[in-house]
Amino acid sequence: MKAVRFHDYGDADVLRYEDVPDPEPGPGEVVIRIRAAGLNHVDIDMRAGTSRLPLNLPHTLGFEGGGDIAAVGAGVEGFAEGDRVTPLYQIACRHCEPCLAGRQQFCARLQMLGVQRAGTYAEYLLVPADSVVHLPDAMTYEQAASTQTTFATAWHCLITRARVRAGETVLISAAGSGVGSSGIQVAKRAGARVITSAGSDEKLARALELGADVGINYTTEDLTERGREATDGRGVDVVLEHVGGSVFERSLAAVADGGRVVVCGGHAGEVVDLDLIELFRHEWSVIGCARATEAELRHVIELVGRGELHPVISETMPLSEAAAAHRRMEDRRQFGKVLLIP
């Protein structure tokens, strides 16, 4: 089969479209014929060697995908060749203390597609059958490749961790990203007023079409000042922050007394200045968000299948053009998810 791998860390040119052995399912496993694979910004960090995630080279990236069952291993029930499916990108052991508590993102033996295991940048994928979900009838392969790391992450951040309530005002960073475009929808579904930021007026126009109430161009406007203006000086109740660096600092300064900042990324600067005096005087809460639970992953798949959430897909590109797709993400030219089609 064909897959995209890198044998050394570096820029997009290290990605190789090459032949690798076809996977064969063992007991309890299935092979999925991938029809669409989703890109995530952390793919770029892993490829560059800056992700702080240990990888075995050569490595195949890709958290998400949608496809069909191509082969079924011994003892597998509930799946047959041709079934439309998506693999959960987090493969948990189901036996450790966090798993038994429903917190699979902290599984002691967690394996993630595209990190500890070969990912979806390939024609075929080998996974345990108990980590596979049937696609709802109305859900496309492309939507399946655009749902888990976007909607489930936004859901875990806003609903589970920040506990957004109806009537609150939420500031969402990077409207053009997968998490940003999904966060707008999740926050509106919770009854919140949404302010969002992006680096271009074109992206802000798209964000307003998704339901955002106010858009801030952080390249031409002061994010803190505009965030407070949009709330009559009070500040926002919640920030969904996944950019880092100065965007985190300016977003925190726009938070109301007693407000919350939930953080799930930091590509623009992982180490930031934090004034502890300001933090405790304003009773701000800074909340970390690692990954969603398995229940949340399954829930957002159902919501997309019912048409209650809508993945935003920027474009699709052939698997052989993975390097070009990475460059497009690095140049921040997309709005929503970029997909690869094997």
UniProtKB/TrEMBL annotation:
In terms of InterPro entries, this protein maps to: ADH-like_C, ADH-like_N, ER, GroES-like_sf, NAD(P)-bd_dom_sf, Zinc-ADH_QOR/CCCR
Question: What SUPFAM superfamilies does this protein map onto?
Answer: GroES-like (SSF50129), NAD(P)-binding Rossmann-fold domains (SSF51735)
Citing just one GO molecular function, the answer is:
oxidoreductase activity
| Pfam families for this protein | ADH_N (PF08240), ADH_zinc_N (PF00107)
Quick one: signal sequence residues?
none
Q: Where is the Enoyl reductase (ER) domain?
A: 10-340
| Keyword presence, NADP | yes
Q: Which domain of life is it from?
A: Bacteria
Entry coiled-coil feature ranges: none
UniProt keyword list = NADP
Write down the Gene3D superfamilies for this protein, in alphabetical order.
Medium-chain alcohol dehydrogenases, catalytic domain
Q: Which protein is depicted?
A: Zinc-binding dehydrogenase
